[in-house]
Amino acid sequence: MNTPAAALILIIALAAGQQASAQQLPGNKETVEIGLSTDTIAITSGFRGTDLTVFGALDNADPLIQRQGRYDIVVVLQGPERDFVVRRKDRFFGIWVNAESVSFQHIPASYSLASTRNLQDIATPKIFGQLSLGVNNIFYEPIPDGFGSSESLKEFTKELPRLKLKQRLYNQRPGDVQFLSSTLFRATLSLPANVPVGKHIARAYLFRNGEFLRESSTSLNIVKAGLEFRIYRAANQYSLLYGLFAVFLAVVTGWMGRLVFRKD
Q1: Are residues 126 and 235 in the same domain?
Q2: Residue by residue, what is the 3-state secondary structure of 160-187?
Q3: Could you name the domain of life of the organism this protein comes from (predicted)?
Q4: Helix, strand, coil % (nearest 5) of the chain?
Q5: What pTM was computed for the model?
Q6: Which neighbouring-strand residues pair with 58?
Q7: Residue 98: its pLDDT value, please?
Q8: pLDDT single digits (tens) 144-153
């Protein structure tokens, strides 16, 4: 099934679910539901990044607050957690070498955010801090004994998100969540060409008048495909044989190069 058709079916399903929920639970507070335009993205050699569309619906929304436009949505796609080392380079006798470093653990390998408005217009920094919502509010957990001093830890903690933003693995797009109707919305998230492989979690956060109400989540799998995937799988499942073959291939390539370019 192509993407536009899948998106249309997803919108219809969310709308139907919203109507059913409103009929069955008329007195309940607002809730939010989301779905993805696709649940799997294949990475090939020609992959140059893409946009992921997230569709959602509000249930049991207050009509007055809807007309006032006081509902806000923040959608996040968070990549698998990894360990990272941030290093500082210093000049040593005219050569740049690695100097002090700080190690972090359980850090999202990628982080894409879209929202109806600028975050400062949706809620207070305290609320976003409590939710760990936004690039500057992620908890960058250092590995115990992985840093020298509290001053260096503070410095390197500020540097980590800056490096991620520079690599385009972290990004924030205010205004890229749009309401298609009074209750249906669509979010567009940016996935860079270097997006990590693995299970990603998409979450939608519902706010009303600056107050956080609910969240909903679903998953996205990003996998390698084609020749790259077969090489990647062989390197992980048969590491010894893969290493021996790589050495053999290097020796054969060097020997053949010597035959081709030798001077008689």
Answers
A1: no
A2: HHHHHHHCCCEEEEECCEEECCCCEEEE
A3: Bacteria
A4: 35, 40, 25
A5: 0.74
A6: 32
A7: 67
A8: 876 667 777 8
Q: Within 13 A of 57's CA, how many CA atoms are on the CB side?
A: 16
Same domain assignment for residues 122 and 247: no
Q: Which domain holds residue 193?
A: 3-80+109-132+163-224
CB 174 within 8 A of CB 119: yes
103 domain-assigned: no
Residues of the chain with pLDDT under 70: 1-28, 98, 146-148, 227-229, 232-233, 262-264
- CA dist., res. 21 & res. 60, Å (int): 8
Record the tokens describing residue 198, joined without a space: 């693995």
Contact 134, 119 (CB under 8 A): yes
Domain count, the chain: 2
CA gap 110, 192 in Å, rounded: 9
Please indicate, yes or no, whether residues 230 and 180 belong to a single structural domain of this protein: no
List Cβ neighbours of 38 (8 Å cut-off, separation of 6 or more).
3, 6, 52, 220
Domain identity same for 124 and 241? no
DSSP string, 232-261: HHHHHHSHHHHHHHHHHHHHHHHHHHHHHH
Note the pLDDT of residue 69: 83
What contacts 50, CB < 8 A, 6 or more positions away? 41, 191
Q: How do residues 11-43 score in pLDDT, each as one tens digit? A: 444 544 444 333 333 444 889 999 999 999 988
- CB-CB neighbours of 119 under 10 Å: 21
